[in-house]
Amino acid sequence: MPPLVLLHGLWDTPRVxxxxxxxxxxxxxxxxxxxxxxxxRFGAVPLRQLAASLAPLINGRFxxxxxxxxxxxxxxxxxxxxxxxxxxxxxxxxxxxxxxxxMRGTLTAQLVPRALLAGIADMKLGSPLLRxxxxxxxxxxxxxxxxxxxxxxxxxxxxxxxxLPLGERRALPVWTHRQLIGHPRALAAVADVLLAPD
Length: 198
Fold this sequence. Notes:
The chain is an alpha/beta fold. The protein has helices spanning 18-27, 47-52, 54-62, 75-86, 118-121, 128-135, 184-194, and strands at 4-7, 33-34, 68-73, 93-99, 144-149, 168-171.
């Protein structure tokens, strides 16, 4: 089983993964996990800057060639996708799981001024960053991608926009964005995918 890198979202820290980590370790005690801190400064840091900071963190822990799996929750999914597509991460990533990540933008970011909160503005519908990512989707062809979303949540609005343009898409039986990373049914479904054999 390759190491698993977990990327948290906006206004979160790696502690957001404590329940998922417990679920994963309960099923696979030998799994190696890395959940780096992404210093987003409440959304002021551009997502490209956060993605550029991933390579030294991942390489420092696992070296530059070890295959990995990657999960991004919320904004962390976009940061992970940037690393995969723009920093060569796709060449070493076996599986990419997005959990409530605004891959097609979110209405909640529309009125946020880029001059103050560039990271949040990157998540606007049709933002230059999202157009850039969609133009490079072919770089993900060799990665097994899965998008989990919550149709009724109020963070990524509408919830069905939280999906990659390729790979499997699955709605989870929860009501809110936070339940995507905390509800037992969501954790079980995500762990099923992360721990599935090749």
